[in-house]
Amino acid sequence: MSGPPDVDYTATSARPSWSALPAGLQEALAVALGTDIVEAGPSVGSGFTGGFAAPLRLADGREVFVKAADDPMHAYTAYQREAEIVPQLPPAVRVPRIVATAHATDGDTKWFAVAAERLVARMPGQPWTPGDFQAVTANCEVMAAALTPSPFADLVSFADIIGDPDFPDQLAADIIAGRRPLPDGFQPWLGDRLRELQDLADLHPHALRGTAAIHGDLRPDNLLMDATNQCWTVDWNWLSLGPPWFDWVGLLPLAHRDGIDTAAAIEASPLTAGIPADDLDSATAIIALYFLDKLDAPPPLGTTLELRRHQRLYAWTFLDWLAARRDWA
After folding, report:
1. Any idea what DSSP says for residue 48?
2. Rg of the chain, C-alpha, whole Å
3. Contacts of 178 (CB under 8 A, 6+ apart)
4. Residue 234 and residue 265: Cα distance in Å, rounded?
5. Which one of 31, 77, 258, 269 has the fewest beta carbons within 10 angstroms of its own beta carbon?
6. Where are the bilayer-spanning segments (predicted)?
7. pTM of the prediction?
8. CA-based nearest residue to 134, from 264, 310, 313
9. Partners of 26 in the beta sheet?
10. How far apart are the C-alpha atoms of 258 and 29, rounded to whole Å?
11. Are 185 and 295 within 8 A, CB to CB?
């Protein structure tokens, strides 16, 4: 395969129906919500997990959006982490409110469900338009201001996460040394730029330090645009400490791919005012290396094969943005 794949982010998951969930979990959720569950809508197709995620209509007229998963799926702990974080976010952060959680055991299997206010909305960036980009940028600026310094006392630094032995921050150096193969199907200049890519990644201990609480996984499928074109942010389970510009800059390679003038956006945004170009490029290099890792390995338990296609698309797109910024092509 040469070049990035096309990924339909509305159809990347394989989720169960409401009827497939254990009766004990359904009952526990109804108790937590304080009313009967009348009807379940179809599960959403976005995301990469096998966790349940669908709207429910309640007997009291409310509609909620429910996520549920069993242990040991990644989604089981991710949904619990999100249920813990969201109620603590500052009011300025636009996020659907958590209204209930429920636990249940089915045989030897533990289950967890979290219900939030239902938001009728769409995903931006399919492709990016100037209007969506402007609205998402404004949302990122508001979030960064509200989350700097972090209102959370127990967050790990993103720079320290990169320093974990399992994080592939030395992937380019390993390829240069012959310890890892050069991934197939990428830009023809990649092999000649590995040293520069690694040098940028090695700047991360300084470049990615910060006191802001950052989402850490901000993608178009974790953003929602409502009927008034206001942007909402979901899936808060990867929260960590980092620079306040990190989440927004992580969206720029995708916007650049769709024709948005990201150089002008960087000049205009207060998020990147005075930030060295090398710091932004260090973040981009780190993310590119992360997505280049394990491209051909089976996806983690509870995720779909679309995760690896997503990785390939993101690795290509982040490398392309670096090439445009640093005249690599």
Report:
1. S
2. 20
3. none
4. 24
5. 31
6. none
7. 0.95
8. 264
9. none
10. 41
11. no
Q: Is the dihedral of CA 138, 140, 143, 148 positive or negative?
A: negative
**Which residue's entry shows tokens 């170009």?**
277
Q: Which residue is listed with tokens 């989440």?
A: 247
Q: H or E element: which one contains 277?
A: helix 277-292
> Can you read off the two tokens belonging to residue 199?
């040098």
**How is residue 3 written in tokens?**
């070049």
What CA–CA distances, in Å, run from 147 to 90, 110, 215, 240? 7, 33, 10, 11
Asked whether the beta carbons of 229 and 131 are under 8 A apart, the reply is yes
Cα angle 8, 233, 159; round to 5:
95
Domain 130-326, CATH 3.90.1200 — does that match?
yes
Task: Return d(Cα 44, Cα 281) in angstroms, integer.
Answer: 34
Architecture of domain 18-117: 2-Layer Sandwich (3.30)
The token pair at 12 is: 């990347």
How do the pLDDT tens digits run along the chain, 329 residues long?
478 999 999 999 999 999 999 999 999 999 999 999 999 999 999 999 999 999 999 999 999 999 999 998 889 999 999 999 999 999 999 999 999 999 999 999 999 999 999 999 999 999 999 999 999 999 999 999 999 999 999 999 999 999 999 999 999 999 999 999 999 999 999 999 999 999 999 999 999 999 999 999 999 999 999 999 999 999 999 999 999 999 999 999 999 999 999 999 999 999 999 999 999 999 999 999 999 999 999 998 888 999 999 999 999 999 999 999 999 97
Q: What is d(CA 261, CA 250) in angstroms, rounded to the nearest whole number?
A: 15
To which residue do tokens 């720029």 refer? 252
- Give the domain ranges of the chain: 18-117, 130-326
Rounded CA separation 52/18 (Å): 7
CA 53 to chain centre: 16
- Counting Cα atoms < 13 Å in the Cβ hemisphere of 66 gives 33
